[in-house]
Each structure stands twice: as structure tokens, then as C-alpha cells.
Specification:
binds magnesium ion; single chain; 4-stranded antiparallel beta sheet; 6-stranded mixed beta sheet; binds adenosine-5'-triphosphate; alpha/beta
């Protein structure tokens, strides 16, 4: 049995003024080293569930554990230093260079200057951006796909114990997206980083996931490995979701 990295136990969030819970009694475990994809239509609660892990959203009921500790009992800032977070909007700091953006968390953690510099180059190479060409650029001098790679490099910078990725490739075209997916797969397999990945792109989910959590209206419809999900969708909803748009194919 492998170690449990993230445990959701009855996780429930009700935003102020909302008539129904954004996530409602969500329960499942993510094993250390596993890549779990949250899949489902807009508004089903994917981002909310992800953000309960690094405490950007607080629970109204239930609990979320990170390596055995209830996240509500941990220091939020400290917790976030051990969890890489990448989002669609990237959120690079415009006034900093690429290298400074990637170095933010290692510097907060007090790494030696040489260790930070080495790590930045290593990560830029990992996401296939030549450090010599890119390290001193500002975000405005990057394409959308390059900026998202820097966002992923930054999320990985301090060797986090888990990665939360909320449609990190949403802003790039299909070709670049496929390349970034391959790179991310290679990176998380190489580093064996526990990853929770949000997408509403079915093909992307099938390609990246060890297991897929299909969400519906704040709850879980089915949890299964990609092949099982395709072969044995538990409900018509899952079937229809998988077959919306192009027929999905595993890479
Ligand atoms: N800060 C907030 N305040 C109030 N309601 C919110 C807030 N954030 C999200 N919601 C609502 O909670 C529900 C779940 O939202 P969430 O952002 O988690 O969905 P999602 O699955 O990530 O959707 P998308 O694919 O569009 O990003 C939606 O009904 C949304 O309108
Ligand atoms: Mg979202």
C-alpha cells in the first residue's frame, strides 16, 4: 500500500449566498506519486475542490488531510510552500524576470543563492526553455505557451510534495498543449510528484491521469482509471461526458 498524500473526507464548501454547495461531501484519496485528474463541466466544483488543499478556500464541513495532517491545523503560508500551484491565468510577476519568477518559493524557503540559480536552470531545461535565452526575459516577452511553462516551472521549483494544476494549459493552442502535456507527464513521472490536475478537456484528462474523478454538481459521479472509465462508464452522464466532442483517444 502506498502512502496517502491527500485525503478528502466529506469535503463540503458552501459559498456565501449560494443556493447549493459548490462541493458536497467529496470523499477520496490521492496516493503519493499519483496523478489524479478532476474532470467535469464548467461550474461542477473542480477549482473549488483543488483550492481546499492549499487552503485558498475553507471547508464548511468535512476535512482535507495533507500527508496525514488536517490542513485546517497547518499554517496556510507554510502549507503553500510545499504545494506547487499553477493556474490557467499563469499569474507571473510582470516586473520580475523569468528566473526571478521561478525562484520565488526557493528564496522564501531560504535556499542558498547558488542552489537557487542551479535549480532555476534545471527547471527551465525541464520545461524545454533554454535558460540562456529565457532566464532574463520579462513575462511580456513570452508567448502564452512559454508563460505557462514558466508557471509550471515555478510550481515545481521548491520540489513540492504535491502539485495542484488548474487548467494550466488552457490558454494555449492544441499543438503546444499536446507538447506541454507530454512534458508534464515526463516531469511528474520522473519526479514522482503527487498531482491533482483540473481540466474540462476529456482527451487531456485521459492522457495524463492515473485515475480520473468525474464530477457533477459538486459531487463525484465516478472514479476510475482512464481505460476503465472508457470501457465501463457508470452512468449515462459519464458516458456522455466522455463522448462529447471528438471521440477521445489515449495517446
Ligand atoms: N468565490 C466564489 N463565490 C461564490 N460562488 C463561487 C465562487 N467561486 C465559485 N463559485 C461557484 O461555485 C461553483 C463551483 O465553481 P468552481 O469554480 O469550483 O467550478 P469549476 O468546475 O472549476 O468550473 P470551470 O470549469 O468553469 O472553471 C459554481 O457554481 C460557481 O459559480
Ligand atoms: Mg475552474
Amino acid at each position: 500500500m502506498s502512502e496517502t498524500a491527500i485525503r478528502f473526507a466529506g469535503a463540503t464548501v458552501r459559498y456565501a449566498g449560494a443556493d447549493r454547495a459548490a462541493i458536497d461531501g467529496v470523499t477520496f484519496d490521492v496516493a503519493a506519486g499519483e496523478t489524479v485528474v478532476l474532470l467535469g463541466p464548467s461550474g461542477c466544483g473542480k477549482s473549488t475542490l483543488l483550492r481546499t488543499v492549499n487552503r485558498l478556500v475553507a471547508l464548511d464541513a468535512g476535512r482535507v488531510e495533507f500527508y496525514g495532517s488536517d490542513v485546517a491545523t497547518l499554517d496556510a503560508v507554510e502549507l503553500r510552500r510545499h504545494i506547487g500551484y499553477a493556474i490557467q491565468a499563469v499569474g507571473l510577476f510582470a516586473h520580475m524576470t523569468v528566473a526571478q519568477n521561478v525562484a520565488v518559493v526557493p528564496e522564501l524557503l531560504g535556499w542558498e543563492r547558488d542552489a537557487v540559480r542551479t535549480r532555476v536552470d534545471e527547471l527551465l531545461e525541464l520545461v524545454r526553455l533554454d535558460p540562456v535565452r529565457y532566464r532574463n526575459r520579462r513575462p511580456r516577452a513570452l508567448s502564452g505557451g512559454e508563460a505557462q511553462r514558466v508557471g509550471v516551472a515555478r510550481a515545481l521549483a521548491a520540489k513540492p510534495r504535491a502539485l495542484l494544476m488548474d487548467e494550466p494549459f488552457g490558454a494555449v493552442d492544441a499543438l503546444v498543449r499536446a507538447e506541454l502535456q507530454r512534458e508534464l507527464l515526463r516531469i511528474v513521472r520522473e519526479l514522482k510528484t503527487t498531482t491533482l490536475f483540473v481540466t474540462h478537456d476529456v482527451a487531456e484528462g485521459l492522457r495524463l491521469a492515473d485515475r480520473i474523478v468525474v464530477m457533477r454538481d459538486g459531487g463525484i459521479e465516478q472514479i476510475a482509471a482512464p481505460d476503465d472509465l472508457l470501457e465501463r462508464p457508470a452512468t449515462a452522464y459519464v458516458h456522455d461526458l466522455l463522448h462529447a466532442g471528438d471521440l477521445p483517444r489515449r495517446a
